[in-house]
Amino acid sequence: MKGKQRKDRDRRRVVQGVACAILAVVFLAVVFWPSERKDASRPKAENQPLRYAGASRVVEKDSEEELKEPPKGALAELKEHIKTAEPPRYAFPNEPPTTKERSDEEESANESQQKVSSKDKKALNIVPIPRFKAGELSVHDFFAQNEGKLPIIVEGEVLDHLATKMSFEDLRDLCGGGLTETSKYEAKAHEWAGLSDLKVRTMKEYLETYILNKTSDELVYSSGSVGIPEFCPKLEFFTPIPSYVSLGVVPIDPYKVQPGQPEMYIGPPGTKTELHMDGYLISFWMSVYSGSKVFRILPFDELISSKGMKRLFLEKETNRWARGGKQLEIWDPDLDVFPELLDATVYEGAVNAGDWIYLPGGALHGVSNDGYSWGVSINSMLPATVKNFADVCLKAQFKWDCRQFAEQLSPACKELGDLNATTADDLVSCLMKGELLKKASALYDSYASKDSYLHEAFHFPNFKSWCEATCQSVRTRFEIQNNSKTLPIEQVEYVCGQCEAQSDLDQILYKIL
Question: What is the pTM of this model?
C-alpha cells in the first residue's frame, strides 16, 4: 500500500513539475517575445504598410518608431522608389479605409500646436477645427460633414505623396530655375492679407537666402501668386491632388489648361498671412509637405451671424478690414476696436507635414507658419459644394467676383438677372449647364473620385501632352502681355523645356506616367 502511495506521490510531482515548466515558458514568451508579435492581435488594417509616392509606392516598415519622420533626400532615392510605382489609388465609398498611423510624438505636437493663450481663450471664442484620420471618410461622407460648410483637417492624407519625402535642397535642385513671387507681412499694409514688398525671384535664390543658408533674417514668404504649371510643371509628379477634391473645376483657357493653379506657399517660422478672403468665394484646400501651418478661420455662416459681423465683413469688399486707422489682425485682435469678434466662433488648428486641410467657400482665414513650411493649394468649384457656393455668392451680394467666376465656368450664367432677380436655385441651374461642372458632377455621382495628377485632373492622357499645352498657354500669354518682369522669356523657356525627357529621372517618370 505504501508503495502505491509513493508511486502516486511521485506521479503528482512529475505532473506539477511539467505544469510549472509550461507556465515558466509562457511567462518568458510574454515578457521577452519580440514586440511585433505582441501586436499580432491588433486589427489587420493597422498592420498595413505605409505607402509613399503619390499613393503608389508601398514601403515596408518593421516598427512604428521608424515612421516618426518621412525620410528626406527624395531625389537621391527616387529612381528606386518609383520603379515599382502603381497608379494613384481610387477612393470609393465602400473601399476599406487605409490607416496611416501617426507616432506619439506627432500626436503630442498636434495637441500643443492647437493650444491657444489664456488671453485668447477668454477673448475670442476659439474652437478646434474638426479632424479625421486618413481613410476614415469616403469622399461622399467627407462632404456630408456639415454639408461642406465647415473646415476639416485630414491627418496623414498626403503622407504618401513624394513631396513629403523632399527636402528643400531637393526642391531647389528640381525647380530652382522657376520664378516665384515673394512678400513680407506688414501690420499696417492695406494689401491682400497684409503682404507687401512683392518681388519676383528664382526659387533657388529664395530657398538659399531665406530657408537653406539663412543669409537673411528677414521674414520673406514665397506666397503663392504663381501656379505650379507656369513655375515647374514636373512638380506635379510629387504633389498629386487628393481624391476629396480631384474633381474640382476652374475656368480653363483655349489650351484646356489653368497655369495659375495650384499655388505654392513656402516660408520660415514667423511668416504669415493675416485674415483675408480668397477671390470668387470658392472652396480652398492645402496639402502641407513640410513644417506646420496654423489656421484661424471664420466660416461664412459666422460672417452673417449678426448685424455687426455683416456690417464689418460684407458691407464692403476689401483686402483688409480696418477701423479708426487700426487694421484687424486675427492673431492679435484688438477687441476694443473690433468687438464684433466676441460673438463669433473662430476655428483654429495646426496642419502638420503630411496633413491636408479643406476650407469652405467664403471662409475668412489667416495662416501662421511654424517651422520651415511648404504647402500646395488650389481654389476650385467642387461638385458637392455647388449649392453652398450659390448660397454664399448671393448672400455676399455677388462680391469677390463670384458671379464673374460663375460666368467663366458656365456661359449660361451670363443670362442671370440682377441680384434682386436671382435665386440660389437660378445660380445652381446655370452652373450645372457648364460642360466642365457637368462632367465633374457625373464622375462624382459615379464615385469616380481618385487621387490625381494635374494632367489627369485636366483630362490629358499623359504628362507630356498637358505640359505642351501649358507651354503653349504660357508662351501665348508672354506674347500678348510682353511683360518681361512678371513673365520673362527665360521662364517661358524653362517651363517648355520640362516637357521632354532630359534625364534618367525624367525618363523613368514619363515611362511610368
Answer: 0.76
In DSSP terms, 363 is beta-bridged to none
Q: What is the C-alpha to C-alpha distance for residues 353 and 292, in angstroms, rounded to an integer?
A: 6
Tell me the per-residue pLDDT of 148-192, one tens digit each, with 9 for 90 and over.
899 999 999 999 999 999 999 999 999 999 999 999 998 888 888
CB of 234 closer than 8 Å to CB of 506 = yes
- The per-residue DSSP string of 11-42 comes to HHHHHHHHHHHHHHHHHHHHHHS-HHHHGGGS
Beta strand pairing call for 152-155 and 131-133 = parallel
Q: How confident is the model at residue 121 (pLDDT cuts 50, 70, 90)?
A: very low
Q: Report whether 377 contacts 265 (CB < 8 A).
A: yes
Which single residue is written with the C-alpha cell 517651422? 371
* Alpha carbon distance 293, 367 (integer Å): 6
* DSSP state letter for 78: H
d(CA 365, CA 342): 16
C-alpha cell at 330: 486675427
**In the numeric block, which cell numbers belong to residue 225?**
501668386
Phi, psi of 239 (to 5 degrees): -130, 65
